[in-house]
Write a structure and sequence with these properties.
The protein has one helix at residues 2-14, and strands at 19-21, 24-27, 31-35, 40-49, 55-66, 72-75, 86-88, 92-95, 100-108, 115-125, 131-132, 139-140, 144-146, 149-158, 166-176, 179-188, 194-204, 211-223, 228-235, 245-251, 259-265, 267-270, 273-276. By secondary structure, it is mainly beta. The termini are far apart.
Length: 277
């Protein structure tokens, strides 16, 4: 009775076992749509293969919530969901070895909608099982296929109904031998998603205009209604005056009233503790 068990064990141990990566490239990483109440709005997401192989891609939609760091969590439903509004021109398609496939996503905006709504489109690769040997009688290989599932936020804004109300609710700056770390909290009290950009400067106060000692641009950040977004910026080391401040200059639109500023005195690290200058 032991020999068949040994043979089975040997067979299992020597069957080739490996991981088969399947990849795709998707752009843009976020799709914004805008349209009037009761209208439709469409946009294109381009999908291509990251390796020289065909991939079968399946598209689905899901709701999500977002935290202060910008991390998305899939949920069954959300208060400002547009999942039921969304449609796609192809639920499943083949991404070729070369080139890209344009996927059209359309939002059917209800007549009573206002502000911004969101959901995410998932692109999931459905690869064919790998095989061993050659010819029509190849045997399926035993292994693990690494299958990507990439979520792309879809943000639908009802044009003419946007109410933008953003403010900086807090700012801190800490100096260490590695540089200056600034933390800015932006609260979105409106009904529309906004893109926040700008810069953080380290400044020395003066009688007239402050003297800029260092600065760092902020990559655009998506601000969702009802969420206080935390933005972290690292400024490389620079000689700092004892009364230096960290100053945030932010913008969320083209108008003069769509700007925000806030500043705070830098703190510094001493023996692993933060102390004020």
């Amino acid at each position: 009775m032991r020999r068949p068990t040994r043979l089975l064990l040997l067979f299992v141990c020597f069957v080739p076992f490996s991981a088969y990566p399947v990849g795709m490239i998707i752009s843009p990483v976020q799709l914004g749509l805008s349209g009037a109440p009761g209208s439709t709005a469409s946009g294109v997401i381009n999908v291509s293969s990251s390796q020289a192989q065909e991939n079968t891609i399946r598209v689905s939609f899901a709701d999500f919530i977002i935290d202060s760091a910008g991390r998305r969590t899939e949920v069954a439903s959300s208060p400002r969901s547009c999942k039921s509004w969304l449609d796609v021109d192809q639920r499943q398609f083949v991404s070729p070895e070369e080139g890209r496939v344009p996927v059209v996503i359309t939002a059917h905006i209800p007549p009573d909608a206002s502000g911004s709504y969101w959901a995410q489109a998932f692109f999931e690769s459905v690869p064919a099982p790998p095989a061993l040997g050659a010819g029509p009688r190849r045997a399926p290989a035993v292994g693990v296929t690494i299958t990507p599932r990439i979520g792309i936020p879809i943000i639908v804004t009802v044009s003419g109904s946007e109410k933008y109300d953003l403010k900086i609710s807090g700012i801190e700056g800490e100096q260490s031998p590695l540089g200056i770390d600034a933390t800015i909290r932006v609260e979105n009290r409106g009904n529309a998603v906004a893109m926040v950009s700008g810069a953080v400067a380290v400044e020395k106060p003066s009688a007239n205009l402050p003297e800029e000692l260092a600065s760092k641009d902020i990559d655009p950040v998506t601000s969702y209604p009802g969420v206080t977004r935390t933005i972290k910026v690292h400024v490389p080391p620079v000689a700092i005056a004892h009364d230096a401040k960290v100053h945030a200059y932010l913008r969320f639109g083209p108008r003069a009233d769509q700007t925000m500023e806030a500043s705070a005195t830098l703190s510094r690290q001493a023996n692993g503790q933060s102390v004020s200058n």
